[in-house]
Write a structure and sequence with these properties.
Elements lengths: L4 E4 L3 E5 L13 E4 L6 E5 L9 E4 L9 E8 L2 H4 L7 E7 L4 E24 L9 E3 L2 E16 L14 E7 L2 E3 L3 E7 L1 E7 L2 E3 L3 E5 L4 E7 L2 E22 L2 E21 L2 E4 L6 E6 L3 E7 L2 E2 L4 E5 L2 E6 L1 E2 L5 E3 L4
Parallel strand pairs: 1-3, 2-4, 3-6, 4-6, 5-7, 6-8, 7-8, 8-9, 8-10, 9-11, 10-12, 10-13, 11-14, 12-15, 13-16, 14-17, 15-18, 16-18, 17-18, 18-19, 19-20, 19-21, 19-22, 20-23, 21-24, 22-25
Antiparallel strand pairs: 26-27
Length: 331
Amino acid sequence: SITNVTFHLGPGTFNAMGCWGGGWTLQDGWHIVGAGKDLTTVYQSGGTSAFNNQLFANSDGHRTGMSIEDLTIDCAYFRLRGTFPNGTYAGVQLSGQSYIRNVRVKNWGGDSAESFALCIISYAPPWPDGAFIDGCEVINGGGHSTPILIASYGSMGPPWAATATYARNGAITNCYVNGANGGVHPPEGFDGSLVQGCTFIGCGYGVYSDTFPSKNILIQGNTAQNCSNGVYFNNNNFSEVTIDSNNINVSDGGITFTNIVTNSVISNNRIVNLGGGFPMGIVLDKTGVNGVKVFENVIDPSFWIFYNTAVNVGTHHNTLPTGELAIPDTY
């Protein structure tokens, strides 16, 4: 059984070497709760090993029932990378059925390895059923930076699990990301995942996925503003993806499915051309993309309003802002 223990950090500024640098890690049922992200700030302060790990992290990827809440983390990437080069300055890594809520991460990044500001990732049971990240902000990243991720290795099958095992019902909601390579990875390795109500400003990608087989994914009601790409799935096995009612303002690509994405829907999205001639509106690339319905989207003129090398694609009433059909109807 899990013994829940809550560590309260009151208002103020605190310095921490981080879990690994400070010689401790989060255990099952541990909760670290501040007084609010505008009231409690924790600064990364020292210890060379600390800069290769998150400030708050579980010990082995097998823990569960943890949370980080109501505080700001300053990862010190810009302040300390000259003293401790090639570090990975990051915020939180939990695992299992855990959550992160109302946390701000700033000044984070990595030069020699990818830095995840906020992540929940499981390499073995307990899988992260019900894991969520809500109401968080990730700002002022640098280097190789991925802001927000929830992932479960069980969907990959051996050696992580005896057979492919999906986690259930992961969610990333009401988060804000400003300036990073990616905005969020939707909960990956899940049967049932949600990205909703998030805002991405100045990112390479708003929503991006490239690794874990997943299904029943809803990307809805998000805004990608001044990004290079809106939603980009380069995945080896996604199915039943719905991308609906997002406001996508980008210079390069609006919504892209490539590799293997099946039985999915792209609907009611507004895709805005920021750069006066971006090359791609909606892209369905390769025959592994199969069985996609595209309807009721409004797309700015571009070099490729619709690039399609997929199979079994249906289109209906996708228009330019003037109301003219942007893509011929097939049903």
